[in-house]
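Checklist before submission:
- one chain only
- standard amino acids only
- sequence pasted in full

Submission:
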Amino acid sequence: MLLVLNLAMVGIVKNSIYYHHIVKRFMVKLTDCCPPRLLFILNIVLENTQEIQICSDQTWSGRQGSILHDSIYNGEIIDARYERSHWSEVDFHDRLSLWLTPEIMPSPIDMNLNGQYTFQDMPPIRVGNDALHSEINISSEYMNEIIGASLYDGGILKPISVSTPVSGIHIFDLGQNMVGWCRIHFHGSRGIAVQIRHAEILTPPVISTRKSSELPYVENLRSATQADIYILQGDANGELYEPRFTVHGFRYISVFGSPNSLSLNDVECPVVHSETTVKGYFTTSNEVINQIQHNIQWSQLNNLMSIPTDCPQRDERKGWLGDASLSINEALYNFDLNKFYINFLNLIIDIQRKDGSIPDTVPFTSGSYPADPNWGTALPTIVWQLYRHYQDRAILQTYHKHIRAYIESVHSDYNKTGLIKLNYHYGDWVSPPPHPMTNVHLISSFAFLHDVYILINISQILAIDEDIKVYSELYQQLTDEFHRVFYTSSAGYYADGMQAAQILALALPNVVPNEIRQYVVEYLVKNIHDQGDHITTGIISTAQLFTVLSDNGYHDLSVELISSITYPSYGYMFNNPYENATTLWELWDAPFEGAEMNSRNHIMFGSIGSWFYTHLAGIEYQSDMIIIRPRMVSERKKYLLDRIHCQISTLYGLVDVSYTRNEKDTFSNSILLQITIPSNMKAKIIFEPLFPHAQCVLLTEGDKIIWSDVQGNINDKDYDVLYNSDTKLMVVQINSGHYEYQAFWS
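Returned file contents:
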């Protein structure tokens, strides 16, 4: 809906609204809730405190406007000949059209079901420069090789090329897979119709000829057309077409039937998403990691459309809880989304049943009810991550009972089946072909244990003693059962030996007994090596893989995997002969799969983004301080990653962490670490050994020696330094300020 105010005149352009389309597309029976309707109340307080109220009623008039059709999936049909200049201004008179008195419609609220109007306190969807703000200091270091558009160029993309592979069709390449629409200048006669189609990629080459039509590929949109039709009004000065009530996911547009030849200057495309602020910045000396970070941030923004969606282009665009739970930690490191996710939580609990169960999608339009445990985990996981990032106990207090009710719904299913047959729908979704999926019940069991463990942590913070006792006992029971039913002692691995089974077992606290933990880790590492240093994991286990390796002595391997550019890997998405992805694919092997489920703009694999901040930059939040512990690749592997720069805007201010191990900047076997901690914040800095069996011999801050293996801890009140001879870690406690450390290892 568009609103225009002019003194005593109120003008509204109304569309068919998103909910109307969702109901029509996915409900079996259409009810009288479906027709779009307007409820309008405007309260005006004048300077003299007098109040005026304007309401929608039958004193209003309406007529057919220029928008003949609108749909978020299928675009708009605009007939500009129906436009009336100045229609929303005082004293407007239209002798050419029939203006009608509106019909009074019944309320869409079902009072028998206790329905009510509820204010959604969430960021609005904005366009272009109004959609994205920043709290970080932008730098272009290490970013020269990035494919795609910058987030920080004002939110309006210009095409990088135009071609005419077929007469009468202009193909524009925006250079970036984006979400929004296009503004296009036309000059032509009244009544000429132009069609604009949107697509993520161009048609793949035919195998026999290896040639492509170079036209947009739209089969993976399924029933969505993503097409706009504009009928010119014939303005001699030219006219600008810009959609109002649709949104498209695309990199390429085709314009068919333009009356004038179009150039690059005739097209610009504003980016559209829920309004947010960039709060995380991460860049490295590794070009592959930088491109992955770029693709994650764009995929995340592209899937913020009032709710966290799975994809922004095909006939889906839904609030799949699995995608939301996998990406929440990454999303909160990169963007300020507190209100956005609280609104989504309210949508989840609004649809939660009395038995505590929730569906796979919110609003519920697809999937199952109750949810797969790895989709339902969105409720506890989003709550927990919001608390971690914003330290607001009220979030835990508000949703604690809903989390407990949800976990009890899974517990009820568990009581019928045990872990060995626990309910599932999707398992470790989209593992890379030709690799099969591991034991689906183990995957569901992982989510159940994960959520019980979160509830224990929440109960401890809220001091709910009964829940602490009950769920700690349950978790102990579940850990014992998980190991008992899924571990194959004769073979030394979990389930069928697939990578995913080992990863998920290792990711859960206290599941793998201490006496065999190292054997399971080594089995996982051997399996990765046997696959040519490649992964065989789907979305659930990929989210845990890199943390498991980094925390269990194989950080080098983690960095090697994320730096890979061969199939299957993140880097393959933009290092292959077919596509140079600027967002994340839905499938590891997208160019080789059919159109049915093959988005090029999916966020569910974006989980890796949190590991960039927590392990590569080493930033972790605690209630009373921030921990900075960058994980170090070994000296022999530092060519993979010898420089990092990271910023995070926190509640206290900007945290800035950068280090270099490049020998142009520092000496071999040393690290130069610069840190800025904002006011009223404390930090613990942890230096890791740079190679096996190394120990720190010297630590300086600025021009001061604050520790050496000869002198020990220097007695300086400004520094609190501890060397752990067992772990070989150097730990420095600091307050706010800017610091420059140099640590030397031998």
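Reviewer check: Confidence is low (pLDDT under 50) at residues 3-8, 17-33.
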